[in-house]
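hiii so um. not sure if this is the right channel but i have a protein structure encoded as tokens and i wanna go backwards to a sequence. like what aa goes where. can anyone help
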């Protein structure tokens, strides 16, 4: 406040403003809260450290940590493959091949024990070495098979049971052994039927292999490497309608229309089933390509069904016979050879003199077919890579009459042929 007197100005200080009680109380509260937080944190930390160092704290910590480790984690996965294996495995068998090694020519012979002049002093030229009286029966191979009926009828590959001098034993999934009898062998396909004496055998059902699709999931079961019984592998259908030449110790066969799969198929798996995810047989495992990895082949179940039906009807597996040697034409082959058609079965001779293009006296010979003819159709169905001549003829039986459309010297003709029976 300024007061004027005698023309002189005198400054008088203003009185101090009083501090309110409310303001003092608020500051005290804030300070108390801060102190509480600080000393509370310090106290909590010291208390926690003391507790952890105590026996009770250690016990509680250990139990919590142990509970975390022992907690079970459950994963949900597609169990269809597991279900198929459980269902199908009891129907899959191992086939053991045994032979008397003493009956194998030259087996066990010591080349240094023979008189080098023996043949010069024995006019009949025969060895005096006698076969030992005691048989030397040894396991010489193994394959797979599976029951297709409850009375013990087993399907396998022909090359598994082709040795007529061998004996065969079937081992079921429960480890029981049975003497086996070979009932029938397919003359044109790698299929055979074997029988054991058993009742109520678990068996597998055949599916319609014509419905099979590339990429479809499949499962293979078999006696892998002849020592790992009921080995399971899985994969997909890699191809359909393949044509291969399958070889074994007893020779080779040309197989057409087979299924290709990447499910691992090893030696010993021959004759085992290739299954779909419903547990039905889509094929019978028969061969592998040794030059590749996971390239296996199976004979389609529809071919199996034909063989079984033939046996049930005739007491043997029969197949229709035409009597020609041929190659399936493609656009590339037709272009290279300058042929008039780029599809069909071109009748050709083999490399040997006896490899006739048309077998003398065969149904084809009687119908007038000759070398370089091209069979274009069988009863109206076009012959091509997906429908080979052999696969089309497999739909018919001996003595059936079929109409072939044949390209012969610039003309297409319909030729009727009465099919024979493969011997």
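sure thing!! here u go:
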């Amino acid at each position: 406040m300024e007061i004027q007197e005698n023309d002189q100005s005198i400054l008088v200080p203003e009185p101090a403003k009083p501090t309110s009680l409310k303001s003092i109380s608020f500051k005290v509260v804030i300070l108390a809260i801060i102190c509480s937080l600080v000393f509370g944190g310090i106290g909590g930390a010291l208390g926690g450290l003391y507790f952890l160092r105590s026996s009770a704290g250690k016990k509680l910590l250990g139990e919590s940590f142990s509970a975390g480790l022992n907690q079970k984690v459950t994963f949900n996965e597609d169990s269809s493959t597991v279900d198929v294996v459980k269902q199908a495995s009891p129907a899959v068998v191992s086939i053991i091949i045994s032979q008397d090694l003493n009956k194998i020519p030259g087996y066990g012979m010591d080349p240094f024990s023979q008189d080098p002049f023996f043949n010069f002093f024995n006019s009949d030229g025969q060895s005096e070495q006698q076969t030992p009286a005691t048989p030397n029966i040894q396991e010489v191979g193994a394959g797979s098979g599976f029951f297709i009926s409850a009375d013990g009828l087993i399907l396998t590959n022909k090359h598994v049971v082709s040795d007529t001098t061998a004996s065969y034993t079937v081992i079921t999934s429960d480890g029981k052994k049975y003497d086996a009898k070979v009932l029938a062998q397919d003359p044109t396909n790698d299929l055979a039927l074997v029988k054991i004496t058993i009742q109520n055998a678990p068996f597998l059902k055949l599916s319609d292999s014509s419905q099979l699709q590339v990429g479809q999931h499949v499962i293979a079961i078999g006696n892998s490497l002849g020592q790992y019984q009921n080995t399971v592998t899985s994969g997909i259908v890699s191809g359909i309608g393949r044509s291969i030449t399958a070889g074994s110790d007893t020779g080779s066969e040309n197989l057409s229309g087979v299924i290709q799969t990447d499910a691992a198929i090893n030696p010993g798996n021959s004759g085992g089933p290739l299954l779909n995810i419903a547990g039905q047989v889509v094929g019978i495992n028969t061969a592998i390509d040794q030059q590749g990895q996971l390239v296996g082949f199976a004979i389609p179940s529809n071919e199996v069904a034909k063989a079984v039906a033939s046996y049930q009807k005739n007491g043997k597996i029969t197949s229709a016979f035409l009597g020609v040697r041929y190659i399936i034409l493609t656009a590339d082959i037709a272009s290279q050879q300058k042929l008039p058609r780029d599809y069909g079965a071109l009748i050709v001779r083999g490399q040997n003199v006896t490899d006739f293009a048309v077998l003398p006296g065969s149904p084809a010979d009687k119908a007038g077919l000759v070398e370089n003819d091209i069979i274009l159709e069988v009863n109206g169905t076009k012959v091509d890579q997906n429908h080979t001549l052999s696969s089309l003829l497999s739909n018919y039986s001996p003595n059936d009459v079929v109409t072939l459309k044949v390209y012969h010297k610039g003309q297409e003709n319909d030729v009727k042929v009465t099919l024979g029976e493969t011997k």
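oh and Residues 1 and 7 are 16 Å apart (CA to CA).
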